[in-house]
Amino acid sequence: MNEIVAAGGERRRRPLAECAGDLLDYAEQIRAGTVVSQAVTTGFRDLDAATGGYEAGTLWIVAARPGVGKTIFQVTSSLKVAKAGAKSLRETAQGFGALAYSLEVPERQISARYLSDLCYIPRLPIEYGRIARGGFSNEEASRLEAAQKKLARLPLTIDASSKLTLAEIGAGVRAEKAVMAKAGARLAVVFVDYLKFIRASDRYRGQRHYEVGEISAGLKQLAKDESLCVVLLAQLNRALEAREDKRPNLSDLRESGDLEADADVVAFLHREAHHILKSAEFRAGRAEAHARYAAVEREAELIVGKNRAGPERTVKLWCLPSCSTMADAARGAG
Fold it and tell me: Are 81 and 67 in contact (CB under 8 A)?
């Protein structure tokens, strides 16, 4: 055992000056344009500015209450990563891509969400619900076919398995890395939607707190070992529903403090319109509630509650749930 530990230590142990020198060499190559940064865009300008983007070796937790927009975030962000990766491949021959685990939403439904996002045009949306049930016009069918052809050119893969273990996710990640490498791209980001559907080992069976800790630690290790970013979607406690201000914070994370401890970035999705829509005043038809809903219907916030790479801040977003699409707030269209 001691020999194994010693061997591992020799393999990983290096003088700090060498590590710093390698970092500066790498930074200078980025500045010179001879290499592409290992951090890739999240797809949202202000979020990139706050965090530096999806950095290799990091674990992100993106959490929200049900129906607020976790899956929307995954769809839009993974599409934007893949678009940026395809562009980088064309321009620099150094592409990158994404793998999205849709453990909650079935394959046809998640495919409809991606098509709806990719097809979005202000005032001419094709809602993903209509796509899934074939309720679109001939003109819209042509747009959807064009979108499918665009998807075929993007380094983006979906795995819509129901429940997976950490080992199965790790094996899938390594397999996809090999596939993308053959196409000249690296797997940069892995999205997992969402925590509840990852199966823990039998070691802590029935002890959910420890199971969640095992999962978050395992995903963090996967990110480091495979030199990519893992974005894990998670659910928040019901308690925030009782508060007047329903903006989430770190204490609202469900099931385990290990999520906060293991993550490099913890971000919370908040849509005031979602909570207004569920309120008794709105359901009763109160004019004031309906006016408040109309004013914030397409507004969203991504509240960065933990950020090892920079400041904690709130990023304003634009969101259209029916088309499963998000954008920087400045887009302000549709």
Answer: no
* Contact partners, residue 128, CB within 8 Å, separation at least 6: 109, 112, 113, 115, 116, 117, 322, 323, 324
DSSP characters over 150-175: HHHTS-EEEE--S-EEHHHHHHHHHH
- Give the CB-side neighbour count of residue 206, counting CA atoms within 13 A: 0
| Geometric angle at alpha carbon 71, from 70 and 76, rounded to 5° | 105
Domains of the chain: 54-268 (3.40.50.300)
| Contact criterion met (CB below 8 Å) for 187 and 228 | yes
The pLDDT, as a whole number, for residue 10 is 43
Tens of pLDDT, residues 283-306: 888 888 888 889 989 999 999 999
Query: Length of the chain in residues, anyone?
Result: 334
User: 10 Å Cβ neighbour count for 235?
Assistant: 18
Number of H helices, E strands in the chain: 13, 11
What are 24-43's pLDDT values in tens digits? 776 776 666 655 566 899 99
Query: Which token pair is 101?
Result: 């685990």
| % of residues, the chain, pLDDT over 70 | 90
pLDDT digits (tens, 9 = 90+) for 192-249: 998 999 988 778 777 777 888 899 999 999 999 999 999 999 999 887 877 878 889 8
- What distances in angstroms separate CA 94 from CA 40, 86, 156, 229, 282, one per listed residue? 12, 9, 15, 17, 51
- Please state whether the peptide bond connecting residue 194 to the residue before it is cis, i.e. omega within 30 degrees of 0: yes
